[in-house]
Structure formats: C-alpha cells, structure tokens
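Title: Prediction job returns without error message
Component: structure pipeline
Severity: low
Priority: P3
Assignee: unassigned

Description:
Job completed but the reporter wants confirmation the result is attached to the right record. Sequence as submitted:
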Amino acid sequence: MSTPPFLTLPACASAGRLATARGEFAVLRGEPSGAVRGTALLVPGFTGSKEDFIALLEPLAAAGFRTVALDQRGQYETGGPADRDAYALPELGRDLAAVTEALAPAGPLHLLAHSFGGFVAREAMLSAPTGPLPWASLTLLSTGPGPIDPAEAARTKMLLDALDGLDLETIWQLMRQLDGPAAPQHEPEVADFLHRRWLANVPQALQAMGERLLGEPDRTAELAATALPKLAISGATDYAWPVAEQAATAERLGAVYRMVEGADHSPNAEQPTETAALLAEFWSSLS
C-alpha cells in the first residue's frame, strides 16, 4: 500500500465531499493561489486513498494546477455497500465518469491514476460514449498492462483467501506478523492512519479489486487507440509490475515515459517533488 509521508494538509488544501450523479465521494482539494492552468483528478490504487497524493497537492498548486484526489467507492472515507458486484470494474469506471462530469466546469481536466486506479481509468475511457473524451490527458503512475507480478500475485491471493473467513483487524495483525522486523517504521500518526484506513475498507471492495489485479486482461492496444496525450511514470523499482514492463507498455501506448529515481511503487509519496515536477511539465506542455 502507498504510505503518505505526512497527513497535515498544506494551506492550499482542504478535505470535503464531492456530490455526483452516483453518490458522494470523499476528496482532498488543492487550490492555486493565482491563475488556474487546469484541474487534475487523482485516482488511488488498491488499498489506497486520497491521502496517497497529499504530498503532491502543494507543488501542483504552486505550478497552477487545481487538484482533486478521491477515495474510490469502498475505500476509506467514501465507503459503499457490502456487495461485491458494486465494485466490478465497469461500476468503478462509471463512478470515475460521474466524478469527471461533476468536475467538468473546472476547465481542462487531467486524469492521473495510480496502480489499480489505472485499470479504472482505462475502463472509464474505453467505456466512454462516442465523441471527444472529457479528459485533457491521461497519466498512468506505476500501472501495468495486466496481472501483477507473480510474487505480488501470491501475496494478493493470500489476502483474498483471508478475506473469505477473517475480519479486517485480524488480517491487519497477520500482515504485521508476516512483515516481521523488516517492516517499515512510520511516525505514530502515520502508522495510526494506515491502520484506520485499512479497517475502513469495504471487504467486498478489496475482494473485487484484488481479483482484477490477478486477472485483468491486457487492453493496451485499445487504450492506445484513444486520441489523448498520455504520460507513464514509474519508480526505479516496483514490486507490482516490473519497471521494464511499464516502460514497454508506455511505448505501446505512444505515451511519454519518465522514471523517478529513488522511488518504488509510489513515486507520488516516495519522491513527490520530482513527481509533481514531471506532472506539471507534461500538463503545461498541453496548454
């Protein structure tokens, strides 16, 4: 899971809820103090939340970009029903389309999706009605074309098996035991947040999303056919999809590809200054 480096919102940001035709979504908003060059919609991945992007809000606002980071259906403060069908990829894609529609009056809208969020963004784009897409660009951040790396797939399969019979608190404690002494050490505030966020997940959402990470087909050719500027960013290493696979996918997409040194699966949290600079450079080149 992504670990935010801090939790205190910068002065440019606020927390709230966004009303859409498919219900309300918990969001963090970042607002520039001067002219707005565009809006960025930030979509988290599996077990993630809007806080994964907290360190991007201030540098992107300084570059003139309004940001809206959300919890998807079933994640943290958005919540959702105890029905696995509600978290099927087409349903999440429709959610993203509804969020996009709610933000449409804000001007050019750049879509950024992290990890599993990339599958949701792809679904929303490939399911969009015929005609111009409502997004100005697509950025895939640490996202692969299909199923995750076999080693990570084995861990995800263990989680899915556990979700069939155990509650989230028990699973959390088991995950901490499996991590052992090598587990990352976090500030108490961040550690408490990670625990609370995990417990706030809807278990059926975790099951549905995890299954897609294990079995989502490669639809790169279809996405490449969409007439939209694309950027792909990876860390220098990645446990979910090999970096070489991400770079090759970017080439197949016709996307600009950038690597963030010193980052793994979450450049947005691990190297936010460098990641924000790459995003601002790309988005600015389109206006």
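Comment from assignee: result matches the submitted record. The longest helix spans residues 89-103.
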